Each structure stands twice: as structure tokens, then as C-alpha cells.
Structure prediction request, 141 residues.
Amino acid sequence: MNSLFKVSAKNHAGMIIMSALAEGQAAINDSGDGFISLKEIANDMGLSQKFLEEIAAALKKAKLVVGKKGPGGGYKLARPAKDMSVYDILVALEGPIAPMSCDGAFCPVAGKCSSKTLWGELHKELVKSIRATSLSQISKV
Prediction:
């Protein structure tokens, strides 16, 4: 089945990690001091721990999570879930969200294409929506 909008496995797993951290920290205590292990998330969700570690490294580099090694270690959110947008997370994992490439190198009819406006408007609305959606809105916190 084809899809108009495809989400990469990396973005999907990244949202799973971030939601699990938000939910896990809320369950541990209100201050969110607890670290959650990727092994726990991998087991709960049936995902590869190695894949989650790659994603967590990108989230850490973007300063969305902090990590702690050793017993009691794992990851936790760098700031409250209500202060992180879905946009922040997706851009940390894949880079800027770009619209359809409407140029002559990619599309031979770019100069006379009437659907460019549609794709541009869809892109603007998508970015607006994911910037306005916080991690706490998609998590159970």
C-alpha cells in the first residue's frame, strides 16, 4: 500500500523513546528525576536496543535527553515534555523538514506545475501543526 505521508522507522522509534521517557518519568515521580533504560523500552516495544541507542545518541546530541551510565542509568528528558515540540524531536532525528523538491533537476515539469502550491501549503500546515504539538500532548502524562 502506498502512502502520501511516510514516517521513517527512525522518527517512529524516536517518538516511542521520547513518549516512554515522558511517561516513565511521570510515573517515577513528579520531578522526573528517574532515568529509564533503553533495554526496558526495547523489551516493552519489541524493538532493537542497538537501534534505540543510535536514536538516543541523536536525541542527546540535540540536548533533548540526558544520559547516565552504570547502575540506575539510562535516559531522561532534558526538559519537561510540555516544553518540547514534536518538531524539535523530528528535526533532531532527520534534519529540517523540507517540502517536496520542486525544481527542474527533480521534476521535469516544475516550471509549469499547478500542484506546487498544494504541496507548499501542505508543508506549511504540517510544520505549523507539529511545532504546536508538545511531547506531553502525545504522551500519557
In short: Residues 15 and 35 are 17 Å apart (CA to CA). The chain has one domain: 9-138. The radius of gyration is 18 Å.
